Amino acid sequence: MEGAGTVAEPAVIRAVETPSGKVAGDENFPVGSWLIRRDVRPHVHAFYRFAREADDIADNPRLAAADKLRRLDRMEAVLDGGPAAESPAAAAMRASLDATGLTAQHCRDVLRAFRMDATKLRYRDWDELMAYCRYSAAPVGRQVLDLHGESPTTWGPSDALCNALQVLNHLQDCAEDYRALDRVYLPERELAACGASLADLTAAHTSPGLRRVIDRLLDGTDALVVTARGLPPLVRAAGLRRECGVIVALAERLSRRLRQGDPLAARVKLRRGDFAAALLAGLWRGRRSARQ
């Protein structure tokens, strides 16, 4: 018990974030690049940082699931006005929302996905994987479109593009996700149908069965990219239209890389030439809007 006249020490507020060190430049796609309006870029970066910090919590192998959920809940509390010191990324996101007048729904959606990551380790089929991508990937594109004042009619092809990028990233990291987190995004039905098993993910090279699984998922991803090609013509903002064209081209090229490469032997990733070619393709695709 404190003595008379004793002043209690203030509670120490600790940050809940566990940064991995990964930054926007490490992604397969441009994040708030020079192609989009200068005044929008800081808000795109704020959303990316918010999602990145939440993702890092969910992917931290040293944290128990309950601790991950607690930390993600605290990020949402800061988003709603809680102590900024607990999550600088959520505080910056809150300031961005205040400045732009946008809803926090897309932020809440990605938090929902990362809560799933904290507890859900397996996916039954493609539809269940797409349901996860609806919250882990699609909100990213929607936030960027909303920041530019684009119509919600752009969400369909944008969702397809973001979901495709998410699956491609899962395929790049399939072995590491299993080894580090016991998390597998490859659907169980596809594994069974192709004669593959989780043990295949621990090998030095892709087995024939696992190769069939990867190719099936790439078939689904390529179908999403076909839908995504309809996005650039729908976007009114010229810079964003071009950036969307670049990202579609990057998704196409990464899919081809994964068709040819072995993600267990080495991380399959885009090369400098892929980015240059995608830039040219994106500038061409984004040269005019269907509404012009």
What does this 3D model show about the protein?
With 292 residues, the protein is mostly helical. The protein has 2 domains: 76 residues, no CATH class; 173 residues, Farnesyl Diphosphate Synthase, CATH 1.10.600. It has 13 helices and no strands. Helix 7 packs parallel to helix 12. It starts with 40 loop residues before the first helix and ends in a 7-residue tail after the last helix. The N terminus is likely disordered.
Task: Quickly describe the structure.
This protein has 13 helices and no strands. It has 292 residues and is mainly alpha-helical.
Q: What topology emerges from the helices and strands here?
A:
Blueprint: H1 41-58, H2 65-79, H3 88-100, H4 105-119, H5 126-136, H6 138-147, H7 155-172, H8 174-181, H9 188-193, H10 208-228, H11 231-234, H12 238-260, H13 272-285
Helix pairs in contact: 1-3, 1-4, 1-6, 2-3, 2-4, 4-5, 4-6, 5-7, 6-7, 7-10, 7-12, 10-12, 12-13
Look at the helices and sheets and give the structural class. mainly alpha
The helix/strand series, from N terminus to C terminus, equals HHHHHHHHHHHHH
The CATH topology name of the largest domain reads Farnesyl Diphosphate Synthase
Count of extended strands: 0
N-C termini distance:
73 Å
Give the strand content: under 5%
Low-confidence stretches: 1-12
Give the CATH class of the largest domain.
Mainly Alpha
Backbone CA Rg: 21 Å
Count of the domains = 2
Arithmetic mean pLDDT: 92
CATH architecture of the largest domain: Orthogonal Bundle
Largest sheet, in brief, is: none
Shape: globular
- Portion of residues in helices? 55-70%
Instruction: Tell me the name of the CATH homologous superfamily of the largest domain.
Output: Farnesyl Diphosphate Synthase
Number of helices: 13
